[in-house]
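Bug #77: duplicate submission created two jobs. Keeping one. Sequence:
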Amino acid sequence: MTSPDAEPDFLTTARTFYDTIAADYAAWADAELATKPFDRAMLAAFADLVRADATGTGLPVAELGCGPGRITAHLHGLGVEPVFGIDLSPEMVAVARRTHPGLRFDVGSMTALDLPDASLRALVAWYSIIHCPPEELPGVFAEFERVLAPGGHALLAFQVGDEPSRITEPLGHPVSLDFHRRRPDRIAQLLGEAGLTPHARLVREPDQGEGTPYPEKTPQAYVFARKPGS
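Kept job's structure:
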């Protein structure tokens, strides 16, 4: 019989997947942001919002599902301070710490963040909610709301669609994982139900096809939300 405290299978599967591919994934993804101007624009807009807003001054900004730390480091380069990353995969966190030794990276899950209430000025979930089954999203977004200070900002990025995609043997490794696509309207609805107010979204078409280093098969979405101020 499964213990009621046992870790959900989707977390175990995701951790194993990313632990296995961590070093190769970090090398593969290193130049991705340089090829995607809309990604950089969304991160720059997020950084502008956080820097311009006095709400929560002194509180940190977290990237949830940081992988090898490239987005955390990019935000740091945009003047977002202090900023740190959290990832489910210890191997990904180890890579991030080696690659960006001046930044903080912790092992953790966005389903149960080891953070106090109202302890973050802002958060980013950059293609990290894509591994959560649909029934898990309300709880994840409730965690986002809990850890954000009043007035805090959130930015989410994800692929658009209805059916999950299964990735098998990534970079030659014998592992597989489901990637859940989302509809922006549904994500905005769930964020609102969790107490976060969506205030901007962008959907763009795939801008790189097969045969390119970073091919995209579906539209990509970005949603900005904010926790109401006190």
